[in-house]
Amino acid sequence: MLHPDYPIVTERLLLRPATLADLDEMYAYKSQPDVCRYLPYEPMSREQVAERISGLWARTELTEVGQALNLCVEEKASGRLLGDVVLFWRNAENRTGEIGYVFSPDAAGHGYATEAATELLRLGFEGLVLHRITAQLDARNTPSARVLERLGMRREAVHREDMWFKNEWSDSAIYAMLAHEWHNLKTTADDRAPQRDQADAQLGELQGR
């Protein structure tokens, strides 16, 4: 089971459950056809977003297989809603999960999706103690694929025309990461952190800070 403490804080972001106070900002991007092009739903009405915030997206913990945890991604400095992310608990025996994310076009190009999705992997591997986490996307969705590759997830397969998706056959790409790969990445990042801190300190001295 997973019982996160909120908000989940990263370097630049806060991850937290959605409330109706998020309705206007969430509707602003979930109503855009370009944003929903590769999502499993059509552009939403304001009423549909409100219904999901109060229902399907209201969960704050994972207590059994089949549930999903949807979290808003807020910019820490400004309080602006950037997007939302989801962690699915798929299977208990095989300890598998899946991640997904959607962000406002205004938030593109700053690495926010990668930063938020990293927390999803941490929640899955360290909180739920999953063995394997996957992500599935339309193979044409190259911006999303780049996020997964930056996370260190491995592209394992492309299934040809396996989905009748929005009135056309679509290929799906499957990405995955295993628990030991996550822990290896984390160890490497932790080992590099003191080196980055030392380099920043030396740069500060050179610049007279």
- Helical stretch count? 6
- Strands across the major sheet, in which order? 1-2-3-4-5-6-8-7
Total beta strand runs: 8
Name the CATH superfamily assignment.
Gcn5-related N-acetyltransferase (GNAT)
Query: Major sheet: size, sense and barrel closure?
Result: 8 strands, mixed
Helix content: 25-40%
CATH topology heading: Aminopeptidase
Distance separating the two termini: 46 Å
Summary?
This protein has six helices and eight strands, in the order E-E-H-H-H-E-E-E-H-E-H-E-E-H. It has 209 residues and is α+β, with helices and mostly antiparallel strands. The chain has one domain: Gcn5-related N-acetyltransferase (GNAT) (Aminopeptidase).
Task: Give an overview of the whole structure.
With 209 residues, the protein is of the alpha+beta class. The chain has a single domain (8-206), classed as Gcn5-related N-acetyltransferase (GNAT) (Aminopeptidase). 36% of the residues lie in helices and 29% in strands. It has helices at residues 23-30, 33-36, 46-54, 112-127, 142-151, 179-206, and strands spanning 8-9, 13-16, 68-75, 81-91, 96-103, 132-138, 154-164, 169-178. Strands 1-2-3-4-5-6-8-7 form an eight-stranded mixed sheet, sandwiched between helices. Helix 1 (23-30) crosses helix 3 (46-54). It is globular, with a radius of gyration of 18 Å. The chain starts with 7 loop residues before the first strand and ends with a helix. Residues 199-209 have low confidence and may be disordered.
